[in-house]
């Protein structure tokens, strides 16, 4: 297959988009003078070109989505310079390197009420003549060295004028020439280039002279390489204003592969930047989180997550709780495709635990030093709020010190529906009866596209979150969970994390996050990637995205002790609970068991100090063994 020919200028700000194309199998880079790029595209000498946005008006071009060269504020390389203030200029010499910058200069001066004559001229000559009432537009790397009494940075002026970013250049293609695979190649190249901006700055300084640090700051802090919704607003505002003033003909934006304006186009971000932001505790947006989920090497992801873990938990302790998981019934009407635990009502294996059995389990837990009962079950159609109130009052009367960590949002939602009660009233009654905190189960993936496929009868993502919100606002604390590996995509996992983070911003009610991979044995659903590597990746990304959730639990129950130990070096700071009993994942084939001594040995062997905690992560005495 012949390679596509792509023309690009050699300006420093273009290097991050082009360096990754050197040696590409799909795209041949054709270096060109700025003034030639658009002409080569127009004449069909190349299939696509990195052109100034004004060149889009020259043909029916298709824009490569997601990638651009722009600025949101000062840009440094598009400036008006002169001896006197622009307010008195009667002539401006226009550097011939970029038509977009000509239009931008005209728009900015027009907004200032200045209407000089514009004369195209080579930048060096224009600058030399920018005296008295004359000014000059200087574009590109030459602008770095401009010294003049009056220098107007046109990136800054545009953002000041509109509140929007300015897009200077983008990849434009002749119609039908660029395929989605080519877009991927351009995106891959850009991601590579963004990751090596420091090296590009050093190389440029070595070749052309100048301060490498200044060039690095320019590439990393001044120039923006994404073309997301905000940048598209800036682009449309520019083209709209230019058309209104008659500086450019009106035009409609077209994208490769019918990527239209309404489609969310992922902002272009660099792995290095996203990893560094995550490690520093800066908030990652969904684009950055998706990039990390998809592309970050496991080791680097783990290091960034470990930096966050160390910043949040610098004392070298890894906590755990002694708790018992009691599944009070396996009767459920929801029939989730991934569940091997539930039985229909009337099934010979269906059960509801009686008080004798519960007494035995709770007494045993207390004897082992347990301080909490994690009480969860199926959605039994006959159990209304009174049944739970009786149960909770009975537990609290007999074991007043035990923390009743009970009922996932799905169960609370079900109880409210079965009892025909408002959600708030249901939660209030359960709290009055003894409910202390809520487990974050049943979240699976908080994206209805996934939920409808794997658990069509389960409550929606909004409903799950609304139960958590209501519970948090009533003072309850809860955990949050994610079950991955059900065929979801990175965007679904990221949406899940972002939704949890948003609720946490609102309520501060989540004490911890726990994720685990789907266990597929005895279920109707096929697992996607549930390997140890996938688990460690999801954990690490979660640590970086959930910047407001203090604790991350390792899931040794599903992954085993060794992988859980590794996760302590990749974001987790808690080893969950000793496992006296668990029925849900064991029904799906997972059977790891550990007592307190084993938990502590694993924590120590991983290089940490074990410490016991309660549900609110308050220490309740250091290691027992
Ligand atoms: S996962 Fe929960 S709600 Fe779904 S079928 Fe199993 S017990 Fe029922």
List the helices and strands and how they pair.
Blueprint: E1 4-8, H1 15-18, E2 27-31, H2 34-42, E3 48-52, E4 62-63, E5 66-71, E6 78-82, E7 91-94, H3 99-111, E8 117-120, H4 123-128, E9 134-139, E10 150-153, H5 154-162, E11 166-173, H6 180-195, H7 197-208, H8 212-222, E12 223-227, H9 229-244, H10 271-280, H11 286-295, H12 298-312, E13 317-321, E14 323-327, H13 355-367, E15 372-376, H14 385-398, E16 403-406, H15 409-418, H16 423-433, E17 437-438, H17 448-454, H18 461-473, E18 477-484, H19 490-507, E19 510-517, H20 532-545, E20 551-553, H21 556-559, H22 561-567, E21 574-577, H23 584-587, H24 596-605, E22 609-613, E23 619-622
Parallel strand pairs: 1-2, 1-3, 7-8, 7-9, 13-21, 13-22, 14-15, 15-16, 17-18, 18-19, 19-20
Antiparallel strand pairs: 3-11, 4-11, 5-11, 5-12, 6-9, 6-10, 22-23
Helix pairs in contact: 3-5, 7-8, 10-12, 11-19, 12-20, 14-16, 15-16, 15-18, 18-19
The structure holds iron/sulfur cluster (SF4).
Describe the fold and architecture.
With 625 residues, the protein is α/β, with parallel strands linked by helices. It folds into 3 domains: 4-68 and 165-268, D-Maltodextrin-Binding Protein, domain 2 (3-Layer(aba) Sandwich); 78-162, Periplasmic binding protein-like II (D-Maltodextrin-Binding Protein, domain 2), CATH 3.40.190; 299-622, Alpha-Beta Barrel (TIM Barrel). The strands form 5 sheets. Strands 1, 2, 3, 4, 5, 11 and 12 form a 7-stranded mixed sheet that branches. It has a 5-stranded mixed sheet with strand order 8-7-9-6-10. It has a 4-stranded mixed sheet with strand order 21-13-22-23, covered by helices on one side. α15 crosses α18.
């Amino acid at each position: 297959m012949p390679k596509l020919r792509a023309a690009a200028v050699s300006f420093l700000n273009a290097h991050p988009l082009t360096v990754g194309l050197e040696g590409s199998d799909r795209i041949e880079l054709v270096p060109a003078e700025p003034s030639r790029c658009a002409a080569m595209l127009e004449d069909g000498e190349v299939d696509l070109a990195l052109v100034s946005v004004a060149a889009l008006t020259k043909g029916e071009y298709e824009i490569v989505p997601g990638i651009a060269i722009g600025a949101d504020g000062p840009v440094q390389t598009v400036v008006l310079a002169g001896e006197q203030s622009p307010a008195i200029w009667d002539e401006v010499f226009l550097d011939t390197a970029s038509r977009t910058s000509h239009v931008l200069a005209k728009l900015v001066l027009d907004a200032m009420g200045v209407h000089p004559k514009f004369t195209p001229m080579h930048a060096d000559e224009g600058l030399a003549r920018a005296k008295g009432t004359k000014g000059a537009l200087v574009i590109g790397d030459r602008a770095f060295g401009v010294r003049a009494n009056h220098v107007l940075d046109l990136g800054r002026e545009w953002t000041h004028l509109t509140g929007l970013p300015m897009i200077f250049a983008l990849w434009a293609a002749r119609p039908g020439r660029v395929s989605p695979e080519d877009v991927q190649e351009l995106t891959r190249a850009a991601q590579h280039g963004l990751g090596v901006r420091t090296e590009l700055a050093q190389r440029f300084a070595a070749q052309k002279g100048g301060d490498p640090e200044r060039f690095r700051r320019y590439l990393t802090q001044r120039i923006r390489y994404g073309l997301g919704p905000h940048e598209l607003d800036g682009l449309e505002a520019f083209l709209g204003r230019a058309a209104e003033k008659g500086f450019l003909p009106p035009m409609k934006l077209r994208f490769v592969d019918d990527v239209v304006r309404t489609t969310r186009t992922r902002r272009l971000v660099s792995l290095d930047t996203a990893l560094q932001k995550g490690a520093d505790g800066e908030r990652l947006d969904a684009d950055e989180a998706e990039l990390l989920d998809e592309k970050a090497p496991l080791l680097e992801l783990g290091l960034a997550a470990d930096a966050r873990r160390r910043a949040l938990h610098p004392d070298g302790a890894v906590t755990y709780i002694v708790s018992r998981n009691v599944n009070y019934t396996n009767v459920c009407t929801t029939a989730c495709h991934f569940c091997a635990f539930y039985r229909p009502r009337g099934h010979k294996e269906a059960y509801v635990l009686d008080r004798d059995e519960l007494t035995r389990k709770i007494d045993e837990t207390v004897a082992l030093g347990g301080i909490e009962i994690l009480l969860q079950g199926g959605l039994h159609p006959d159990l209304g709020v009174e049944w739970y109130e009786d149960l909770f009052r009975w537990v609290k009367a007999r074991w007043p010190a035990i923390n009743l960590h009970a009922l996932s949002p799905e169960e609370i939602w079900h109880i409210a529906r079965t009892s025909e009660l408002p959600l708030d009233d249901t939660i209030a009654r359960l709290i009055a009866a003894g409910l202390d905190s809520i487990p974050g189960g049943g979240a699976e993936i908080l994206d209805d596209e996934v939920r409808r496929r794997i658990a069509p009868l389960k409550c929606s993502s909004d409903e799950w979150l609304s139960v958590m919100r209501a519970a948090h606002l009533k003072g309850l604390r809860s955990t949050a969970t994610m079950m991955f590996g059900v065929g979801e995509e990175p965007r679904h996992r990221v949406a899940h994390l972002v939704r949890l983070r948003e609720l946490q911003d609102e309520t501060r009610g989540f004490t911890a996050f726990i994720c685990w991979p789907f266990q597929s044995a005895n279920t109707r659903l096929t697992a996607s990637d549930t390997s140890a590597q996938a688990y460690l990746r999801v954990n690490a990304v979660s640590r970086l995205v959930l910047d407001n959730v203090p604790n991350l639990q390792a899931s040794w129950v599903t992954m085993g002790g060794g992988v859980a130990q590794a996760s302590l070096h990749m974001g987790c700071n808690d080893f969950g609970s000793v496992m006296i009993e668990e029925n849900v994942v064991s029904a799906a084939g997972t059977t790891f068991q550990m007592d307190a001594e084993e938990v502590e040995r694993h924590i120590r062997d991983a290089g940490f100090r074990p410490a016991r905690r309660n549900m609110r992560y308050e220490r309740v005495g250091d290691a027992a063994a």
